[in-house]
Amino acid sequence: MTIFDVDIDALTGGTTDLDRYRGSVLLVVNVASRCGLTPQYDKLQPLYDAYRDRGLVVLGVPCDQFGNQEPGTASEIDEFCRTTYGVTFPMTEKVEVNGAGRHPLYTGLIGGGPDIRWNFEKFVVGPDGTVTARFGPQVEPDDPEVVATIEKLLPR
């Protein structure tokens, strides 16, 4: 089983069929609208724009577990992301990434590793569903190491 087999709802309703991303490279990021790191959306969207035609999918996963920094409803989060940062990449329902209520997506991403430390922690998932890299919240989406990891997994 890989993360492509996990069920998770889309932010705007319905399901986010992760299986359709099998064969793509995913950058999964737990996001929040009222965090000091929220301006990372300004780098996530251009990264998605630059590489989506080669198979990159940025997947935003709202989470309110850190300082109550994602308190909004699904429609409020969607509107904020679209109007403030021009987000067009897929977003999931708001979930818990740590603790007893941890969503299965994050159980798969973390494996036996440490809990998520804060908003905007990043996981790079290869086309086969294997987590190939994990980057801390302070690492910007356009950091050369993040980009190199993604480029290495994308088809030429």
UniProtKB/TrEMBL annotation:
Q: Which PROSITE patterns match?
A: GLUTATHIONE_PEROXID_1, GLUTATHIONE_PEROXID_3
**Which Gene3D superfamilies does this entry report, sorted A to Z?**
Glutaredoxin (3.40.30.10)
Signal peptide range equals: none
Q: Does the keyword Oxidoreductase apply?
A: yes
Note the CDD domains from the entry: GSH_Peroxidase
Q: Where is the active site?
A: 35
GO MF term list: peroxidase activity
For this UniProt record, give its keywords in alphabetical order, as a comma-separated list: Oxidoreductase, Peroxidase
Quick check: keyword Oxidoreductase in the entry? yes
GO BP annotations listed:
cellular response to oxidative stress
Q: Which domain of life is it from?
A: Bacteria
Q: Which SUPFAM superfamilies match?
A: Thioredoxin-like (SSF52833)
What InterPro entries does the entry give?
Glutathione_peroxidase, GPX_AS, Thioredoxin-like_sf
The entry assigns this protein to a family as follows: Belongs to the glutathione peroxidase family.
Q: What is this protein called?
A: Glutathione peroxidase
To which species is this protein native?
Answer: Actinoplanes cyaneus
